Amino acid sequence: MRYLRYAFLVTLGIILISVSLANVQSVELKLMPDALAELLGFNLSTSLPLFLIVLGGVVAGLVIGFMWEWLREHKHRRDATTKKSEVRKLEREVKKLKKKQNEGQDEVLALLDEAS
Fold it and tell me: Could you tell me which residue ranges the Lipopolysaccharide assembly protein A domain spans (predicted)?
């Protein structure tokens, strides 16, 4: 399975490198359309290779997706934390009750009761 993953990553790397080398032409990237830029009085633009724009869009999409999922799953993480603290509290209470129950018994029997 590990070799399959490495083969996939190498293939993906070769494809990305070949697409990048095929698209090195510069493209002008503008912040807003010309009509809106004239209305507002400013426009930011830069010239970048096409492959940087495409790969940057993919990376930006991945980052936005990961952040969106992280925010969406917040309530599940909070519930898991609450449940975990409740479980720890109940385990301490059970230990305390077992210890109290086995107070007057023989040590060997008390150890056997605690183990089960």
Answer: 23-94
How much is the pTM? 0.60
pLDDT per residue as tens digits for the range 69-92: 999 999 999 999 999 999 999 999
Tokens 């070769």, located at residue: 14
Are 30 and 37 a contacting pair, CB within 8 Å? yes
Task: Give strand ranges (E) for 1-116.
Answer: 26-30, 45-49
Exposed e or buried b for every residue in 56-83, given b needs 16+ CB within 10 A? eeeeeeeeeeeeeeeeeeeeeeeeeeee
